[in-house]
Amino acid sequence: MSVKSRIPLILLACGSFNPITNMHMRLFELARDHLHQTGLETMAYGISFSCCHNSFRCPSVQRGKRQGRYQVIEGIMSPVNDDYRKKGLVSARHRIAMAKLALETSDWIRVDPWETEQESWTETVKVLRHHYNELQSKKEFMKNKQPTERSTENFLSSQCSALPELKLLCGADFLQTFQTPNLWKKEHIQEILEQFGLVCISRAGSDPAQYINESELLTKFQHNIFLVKEWIQNEISSTQIRYALSRGLSVKYLIPDSVIAYIAYHNIYTEESEQKNEGDLLQPLKLHNTAM
Amino acid sequence: MAMEDPDRKTEVVLLACGSFNPITNMHLRLFELAKDYLHETGKYKVIKGIISPVGDAYKKKGLISADHRVTMAKLATNSSDWVEVDDWESSQSEWLETVKVLRHHHEKLSSPDTTISLQNALPLTKPGRKRKQEPNRHDPIKKKNQSPDGKNVPQVKLLCGSDVLESFGIPNLWKLEDITEIIQNYGLVCISRAGNSIQKFIYESDILWKYKNNIHLVEEWITNDISSTKIRRALRRGQSIRYLVPDVVRAYIEKNDLYSLESEDRNAGVTLAPLQKNASDSKN
């Protein structure tokens, strides 16, 4: 399958990124590898597994590269608005700056500030809709333009290729949050699964297939949920990073050096910053409570 | 007149031996974790970290040339102001037991020339100014002269993961007298995953139990399983290793096309050097 006939795909990750860590960036790399190496034969069941016991015998393998159905053309990191009110959430200005520093060396992942620029917290489905609309308007704009270096524009300017698919990139714990009362609207979950799709990274030992199985809604749209297993465990949570920083412990090699320097220079994470929003209700819970 | 400083801490140099095939973020984390841990005890001051890649004569399966492994380790430690790479071990023509590498570095640190050069390398504080408690600053060595009993010589400790400690139990891999010398004369700083059974392992070994005060167990709460084996596997399969190894190392591997099916087959069927050596020694 040539690159041109593959479906272009954009990965969108929403989250606090408080701060961004090497693990966040790994999610993108894992997702891309998986989508590029997923063969057609596994698509029928909707749940594809990371390759690949057959890699050494498969004739189409050249140094491990298999022909997948998708071509991942972009990764977008969308930090959440300050209005999310999560405990310890530092200003979006800093979280965006740190993500930018971290992604300097990446040629396909970028940070998008749209969510942080809104007046209030935005439901995830609306963020997806926004970025999809952007894609559509870009395609219109690019129709008559010459293709440039950036692969997104290459695809958008091509007359025969389809509009890229936009999928939400997340960890397996994200699937679980669908069950948290009042955190999600049911129709939003449906729209996310039906119109967009999920690429869900899980670590060895956890079983996201089970969450899917236990939910009628998830089961219905399982063909649009890509499960990727992370065999190299690297669980660097932002919370642990903040703990370490507040205790004067090293976080080198867990987050990029440039981000460490930024945090030190601006003295971002302190006992005080960790107390921010203490006692406040998380914004999505507040919204859905008042709606009832 | 020199006064004994009541706050005097024991100076420590951390030495990590291993294949580093290739070096990963996990290897580098071991140093950071060990340093933080020792500083938190209030009794130690870590002044240097040394990465000593094993020589090619080790004959481990998949082991690529020491030149590359040393270069990658050097690239990886460029951004560190206290961890460095030493190629003495890898430039020996025969495989060396770990205890010999420890002895070598201890002797090197004991020599007067080294003491003086260490002094010159460290930042000086002005006399009379009170030193603030900054855990990551390196204090200067106060005494200029080497006392005859070598009291000022920093201690060299072996830094390792729990897998190394547990490998003490593999027949013919280690000599008992070497293990004894390592933990008795030098000491271990052993990083293990939270919940690991390493304490049980120490309990069940008489020699380890005897010197358990010289074995510092550091728990790593952030699960970090970035083994070189998995990195090589990912590379063979055309998968990304970004954010698992320093970017300069990733670029170097890519540029030199270091790891492949062929490289993984190196030394296939060959007996590991320590096993060969200890087996033939025991026959005599």
From TrEMBL, chain B:
Enzyme class: transferase
The protein's name: Nicotinamide-nucleotide adenylyltransferase
GO biological process terms held by the UniProt record: NAD+ biosynthetic process
Catalytic activity field: beta-nicotinamide D-ribonucleotide + ATP + H(+) = diphosphate + NAD(+); nicotinate beta-D-ribonucleotide + ATP + H(+) = deamido-NAD(+) + diphosphate
Gene Ontology MF term list: ATP binding; nicotinamide-nucleotide adenylyltransferase activity; nicotinate-nucleotide adenylyltransferase activity
Keywords carried by this UniProt record: ATP-binding, Magnesium, NAD, Nucleotide-binding, Nucleotidyltransferase, Nucleus, Phosphoprotein, Pyridine nucleotide biosynthesis, Transferase, Zinc
Subunit structure: Homohexamer. Interacts with ADPRT/PARP1.
Cofactor: Zn(2+); Mg(2+)
Keyword ATP-binding: yes
Entry keyword annotation includes Hydrolase: no
Region of interest called Disordered, as start-end residue ranges on this chain: 120-153
CDD domains given in the database record: NMNAT_Eukarya (cd09286)
InterPro entries according to UniProt: Cyt_trans-like, Euk_NMN_adenylyltrnsfrase, NadD/NMNAT, NMNAT_euk, Rossmann-like_a/b/a_fold
UniProt xrefs under Pfam families: CTP_transf_like (PF01467)
Catalytic activity, EC: 2.7.7.1, 2.7.7.18
Family: Belongs to the eukaryotic NMN adenylyltransferase family.
Family annotation (NCBIfam families): nicotinate (nicotinamide) nucleotide adenylyltransferase
Cytidyltransferase-like domain span: 15-233
Subcellular localization(s) per the UniProt record: Nucleus
One cellular-component annotation, GO: nucleus
